[in-house]
Amino acid sequence: MNTPGEILRTEFLEPLGLSQNELAIKSGLHRMCINEIVPGQRRIKAESAIAFSKVFEIKPLFWLNPQRDYDLALEAKKSHAPVRSISRTILRRHIILTVPIGPNGSVDAIGLRGSTKCLDAPARLASASA
Q1: pTM of this prediction exceeds 0.90
Q2: 73-117 pLDDT, tens per residue?
Q3: Which segments within the chain are labelled E, that is strand?
Q4: Which fold would CATH assign to domain 4-79?
Q5: Model confidence over 59-72: pLDDT tens digits?
Q6: How many CA atoms lie within 13 A of 90 on its CB side?
Q7: 52 to each of 10, 28, 34, 96, how far by Cα in Å?
Q8: Less Cβ around it within 10 Å: N or C end of the chain?
Q9: Kindly report the CA angle at 90 between 8 and 95, in degrees rounded to 5?
Q10: CA 115 to CA 117: how far, in whole Å?
Q11: Where are the domains positioned within the chain?
Q12: Nearest-CA neighbor of 119 among 91, 99, 92?
């Protein structure tokens, strides 16, 4: 899997003939930051994603999503777990633990009234519906 820095280099810097130093000047980021992002020694964080989005006129999520995917792939490789199962577990937990709560504290069957509160344990889900 390519690092987000490799994507930056191969899809933007090289085709546009832009050096890392020029990108640092245009983005307002420190040259050392760019020099570490490109070879994958530094992660793309919100600050650099916003700076790159201004230079290349692309939404910041364009830069944050590949970083997230790369981080997940690295973690999955360490734990020998496929990335697909990690994502499903997170999604399943969110769906199970988020329920609509009516004005009197009861679970709203339709989900149109009241506010949505995120419960911190499955046991509270059962007690909220009682």
Answers
A1: no
A2: 888 888 876 655 444 444 444 443 334 444 554 444 443 334 334
A3: 98-101, 115-118
A4: 434 Repressor (Amino-terminal Domain) (1.10.260)
A5: 999 999 999 999 99
A6: 6
A7: 15, 9, 10, 36
A8: C
A9: 125
A10: 6
A11: 4-79, 83-129
A12: 99
